[in-house]
Amino acid sequence: MSLQPHLPDTMIMENWPLSQLTTLGTGGTAEFFAQPETVSQLQEIIRLARNIPVYIIGGGSNIIIPDGKIPGLTISARKLDTLSWRGNFTAEIGAGLSLPGLVKTLRDMRLGGLEFAAGIPGTLGGGISGNAGAGGHGVCEYVDSVNAVDSSGNLVALGRGDFTYGYRYCGISGVIIASSVMSWDGSPWSEDVYSSFMARRKSQPLGFRSAGCTFKNPEGYSAGKLLDECGCKGLRIGGAVVSDVHANFILNTGNAASHDVTELAELCAKRVYDYTGIMLETEIKTLSPCFSVQ
Ligand SMILES: Cc1cc2nc3c(=O)[nH]c(=O)nc-3n(C[C@H](O)[C@H](O)[C@H](O)COP(=O)(O)OP(=O)(O)OC[C@H]3O[C@@H](n4cnc5c(N)ncnc54)[C@H](O)[C@@H]3O)c2cc1C
After folding, report:
1. I need a surface site. Which of 142, 149, 161, 262 has the fewest CB within 10 A?
2. Looking at the structure, do residues 73 and 87 belong to the same domain, yes or no?
3. Residue positions annotated with a catalytic role
């Protein structure tokens, strides 16, 4: 990868530790790492990259970064955290804005809609990518359009008709989400609904490093309940352990490697399959290239 003289020296780092950028706190080192502060910088960085895979991370709260060296360019979207209102109920929001920050802003404004997102960590970009949510709702419900950057560094505008979304997925792939236009219908914020979603968090392990729920709920089942019934609580590999509080959470007890977490998840999935015949699908993503630049 060659660097152009007009880019700030600090824009592209080498051998950058990625574990510190994840809530799980595991994983290896990026060969190249960049944290653009503007969409133009993001485009420029991608245009500079040659023949390497490009990865994108947001808040790192739903991701396992493999151990060892990650060849290619890893980009953090966190500094793309702008928010600008276009009228009372519509805003263009940078992919790096924290979802808790957005929820707080809406709560302060008494503008209802995202109460269900109470307590979900991460960024808006990660939230759109996995349609983060709870109680049958997801953030994509409020997305009008997405501005993304493709493998040539070009801006792509995606309207509601250009992608489909559902339970923990959004049909946007092969691009980096740079920002999104979101709108609300003006309904008032419900503190009761917000508090009820916040209260659900009490069933989750607090104060430990994790990447949230390991598995999606299979249709008609709770993954946590299945894992619990199959005796997964307390299973351990290396520094990774299945939470005693909520079996769908794998915790880093301090010295876990990513392969400990992955192997433990595989062990749990196998156990549930052997006991019930139900194949669990992981909700946590493993870092994989968004695209490769030529
Ligand atoms: C304690 C805890 C509780 C949680 N509770 C919930 C919950 O209730 N509901 C829920 O849905 N999730 C929950 N999560 C998981 C997580 O917070 C969400 O999935 C969140 O939306 C992930 O956002 P992120 O920015 O951290 O994404 P990351 O973890 O950084 O990335 C996740 C995926 O999104 C992709 N991505 C990130 N940014 C972009 C971008 N700009 N463009 C394109 N792709 C991108 C990444 O490549 C990766 O594939 C929880 C996690 C924790 C740790």
Report:
1. 161
2. no
3. 168, 213, 283
